[in-house]
Design a protein that fits this description.
This protein is α/β, with parallel strands linked by helices. It is built from ten helices and six strands; from the N terminus they run E-H-E-H-E-H-E-H-E-H-E-H-H-H-H-H.
């Protein structure tokens, strides 16, 4: 059973999510809350497998991620900029859907989040990749590995390849390879490496 906590200030959004997920026999809505003041209290009380929240700021993501590693966050948001989506990816958020996603996408996102897997709805993918993903299924989009996510954090801190290599006990060549793979997966060309790093840094 996947236990889900819904945190959203909008009544219709909360009720809509709960209604859609209530049709799934292996998903249980344990609580709906209206504000973030209650969020950490409810996480402690109910220990949810998945926390569905509207857009989080950087400080909240870091705080919740540090305190509650047993729960996975699914971010539900209105239209986001590419930089905002990348910011959340860099902070380790693997599941993101927009509020105009389909019923099936929401359900798939919950299942993916519960397993700690990455999931983006079509709207988020279009914002990230544009026409590059047309004709592909969501499963065709490469996922970031845990090492790649770790390196994104260090890039965002302004670390050089040498500093990243020393911190992670890797060779500089290995770090460069990881950076190229990250850029390729997120739809950036190699010539935009500096732009990518500065974009992530500017959103933190």
């Amino acid at each position: 059973m996947i236990n889900v906590l819904i945190a959203d200030s909008q009544l219709l959004t909360r009720e809509g999510i709960a209604f859609i997920l209530s049709g799934m026999t292996d998903i249980h809505i344990i609580k709906q809350i209206t504000n973030r003041v209650e969020l950490e209290q409810m996480i402690i009380a109910y220990k949810p497998d998945v926390i569905i929240v509207d857009h989080l700021d950087t400080a909240e993501v870091k705080r919740i991620g540090a305190r509650f590693d047993f729960a996975h966050m699914l971010v539900l948001s209105n239209k986001q900029q590419k930089s905002e989506i990348l910011e959340l990816i860099g902070l380790g958020i693997k599941a993101q859907v927009s509020k105009d996603c389909s019923r099936q996408e929401l359900i798939q996102a919950v299942y993916a989040a519960a397993k700690g897997k990455q999931f983006f709805c079509e709207s988020i993918l279009n914002t990230l990749f544009g026409n590059k993903i047309r004709g592909k299924s969501i499963d065709d989009i490469p996922l970031l590995s845990s090492r790649e996510t770790e390196i994104i954090h260090l890039i965002a801190e302004g670390r050089t390849n040498k500093e990243i290599a020393e911190k992670l006990f890797l060779s500089i060549h290995t770090v460069k390879t990881h950076r190229k793979n990250i850029i390729k997966k997120l739809g950036f060309t190699f010539k935009n490496t500096a732009e990518f790093a500065s974009l992530i840094q500017s959103t933190l």
